[in-house]
Amino acid sequence: MDHFTRELIVLNHCRGVGRKMIWRLLQRDPDLSRFRNYSARDIQRFFHISQAKANVFIDDLHQLDPKKLLSMLHAQQITPITFHHSSYPKLLKHIFDPPYLIYAKGNISLLNETKMLSVVGTRHPSREALQIINKIVVPLMKSGWTIVSGMAMGIDGMAHQQALAHQTIAVLGSGLNHPYPRQNCPLFKQMCASQLVISEYPPDARPERWRFPERNRIISGMTLGTLVIEAKEKSGSLITADQALDQGRDVFAVPGSIFKETCGGTHRLIQQGAKLVCDWQDIIQELTWRME
């Protein structure tokens, strides 16, 4: 493994700094050849962070053993993929705030697929939800589309489950050693074996509430469009849809009954300009030009 990737893995494991600071560090030291000479005071001055955070960062930087980290990743069959790697998703590179590093477990070749659609929705789906997935999403799978979602309960897990015989990628809001929710651990194991699971967080990072909306930008950023199936007016699915719009991607929504709370969010999206979807061809017609 090259020097740049090793150092980026170490940085990703350091406390006291976040993604934005690492990007600023890369601007100052593009090949990561000088940053180990920085003092805590340098870090504080260069990146405008508190002394306490700078001290924690420097302590971790000099205590973490790159060889040990790489050995752990290898033992866990986890592949680190940097922003500059050939396997890094091409569409993801063009969003405002891409991850500088992702960890992948499974079939890494899926990251280079061009026909990708994200599918998200409520954690409490109706009885009709599976019928909707079978009518709209399964034909897309059979046509060679890779389904990207967040492995949450409900629509996410259902979409992944139906795609196991085809192609699907899960983006976690935790490290790969702590898949969430626990109810989907069997699905996680199946996907690691035959599909792909990725995360921007170190493998031992535990699920935190703030990480889930943060990872949504990756779900939408990897794909040509986002399909929302059943969502309340205030839900994480709408965060993903908003991210997709900010990234210049298409948003699709399946309509439902005005009496169902889980349709309020999708109806609001349609009012705001999302394409109403009744058939899988509605999505194909809209996205074909993006692949030309």
Give structural attributes:
single chain; 292 residues; Rossmann fold; 2 domains; nine-stranded mixed sheet; 12 helices; 42% helix; elongated
Could you characterize what this model shows?
One of its GO terms (molecular function) is DNA binding. Residues 81-287 form the Smf/DprA SLOG domain. Pfam families: DNA_processg_A. InterPro entries: DprA (IPR003488), DrpA_SLOG (IPR057666). Keywords: DNA-binding. The protein is α/β, with parallel strands linked by helices and 292 residues long. It has two domains: 3-76, no CATH class; 106-290, Rossmann fold. Helix content is 42%, strand content 13%. It contains twelve helices and nine strands. The protein has helices spanning 3-13, 19-28, 40-47, 51-63, 66-75, 129-142, 155-163, 185-194, 211-221, 236-246, 264-271, 280-287, and strands spanning 79-82, 101-106, 116-121, 146-149, 168-171, 196-199, 225-229, 250-253, 275-276. Strands 1-2-6-5-4-3-7-8-9 form a nine-stranded mixed beta sheet, with helices on both faces. Helix 11 (264-271) links the parallel strand 8 and strand 9 (275-276). The longest helix is centred in the middle third of the chain and has 14 residues, at 129-142. It is elongated, with a radius of gyration of 20 Å. The protein starts with a helix and ends in a 5-residue tail after the last helix. The relative contact order is 0.11. The model has no long low-confidence stretch (mean pLDDT 95).
